[in-house]
Amino acid sequence: ADDLEPLREDWARLAEAGRNVFGTWEWNELWWRHYGGGRPLRIAVSREDDAEIAALVPLFVWSTRPLRTLRLLGHGHGDRLGPICAQDDVPMATQALRLALAAEPHDVFVGDWVAGDRDWTRVLGGRVVRTTGYPILDLQGDSWPDFFGRQSTKFRKSVRFGRNRIERHAAVEYRYAVPATLESDLDAAFRLHGARFGAHTGCLFCGEHEAFQREFAAIALERGWLRLLLLEIDGRAVGLEYGFFFEDTYFAYQGGRDPEWDRESVGFLLEVESIRRTFEEGGIEYRFLGGDEDYKYRYAAQDPQLETVVVPRSRRGRAASAALNAA
What we know:
The protein has helices at 8-18, 25-35, 90-103, 120-124, 144-150, 153-167, 182-197, 210-223, 266-280, 315-326, and strands at residues 41-47, 53-63, 69-72, 108-115, 127-132, 136-138, 172-176, 226-233, 236-246, 249-257, 285-287, 306-312. A six-stranded mixed sheet has the order 1-2-3-4-12-5, with helices on both faces. A six-stranded mixed sheet has the order 6-11-10-9-8-7. α7 packs across α8 (210-223). It contains ten helices and twelve strands. With 327 residues, the chain is of the alpha+beta class.
C-alpha cells in the first residue's frame, strides 16, 4: 500500500491489539506528514486466509543513493517499532516483517529501536548496532498502597518528606492538562523541558520538532490518551510529566522541571504521582521508554531493551552494514 488512509480502520484495530501508542494510525500518519519528505511509502499488508488484515509493516524508502535503504515510520520519535499486530502474536510479526522485506527491493534495512526481546537479528540475519534500556513496571494485579508499601523505607520517607516540605510553605497542586488549558500547558511544558535540559542536539521534543509534538498532544487529548501532568506551586508550573495512557499502559514520554526547585525533588515527586495515578486508572504497565538513566531502575522493573538492527540484502548493503558496525 502507498497510502495510510485506506488502512485506518484496520490499523486502529491492530494498534489496540499491539498496545503501543507509537503503533497507532494517528502517530504514524502525523509523523509521515511531518517527516516523510515525499519519500516513497511501502506499507506491507499481511492477510489471513479469511482476508482480514492480520499485520501491517509500515516501511518507507529512506534513501536511494548510495544505498536503497528501508526504514520504519516513526523512527527517532517512537520506541519499540516494528510490525503492527497483536502484541503476543510473535509468529505473525516475524512472518510479516520477513515477507515485507523480501517483497521490496533494497540494499539495507535499518530497524530503529525495535523490540530487543524479539531476536530480530537472528530472524532477519542482520547486526545489532546499538542497544538501550526499556524498563517496564508491571502493575497488573497490584494496588498503589501495596506497591508503595513494598518500596524501601528510604524511598517512602523521601516521598513523604518531599511532599511535606513544599506543602508547608506553598499552595501545591498536581493537575492534568484539559482542552481549555492545553496550549498554555504545552507552553509551560516546553519551557520546563528547556530549563531542565537546555539547548541540546538530538532533542526530539523541542526546536523544529515542537510543531509535531503540539499537534500530536492535541490529537492524543481528543482520543483520551494524553497525560500532561503539571506540578504547580503557588499557581506556577515548576515541573511536568508528559506521557500517554493507551490500552491500559502508560508511556512516560518526556519530563522537565525548573532547576530552582531541584532541591525539592519535584521531578521525583511527579514521577511518583504519575505512577499512583496510573494505578488509579487501572493501568497494567508503566513504561519508562528508551534510555538507561538510573532513575528508571529504582523500581523492580523488567527490561526487554531496545535495539537498532541493520539488515543487508545486497553486496553493497553487506559492505555498508559491516562499516556501520565497525563505526
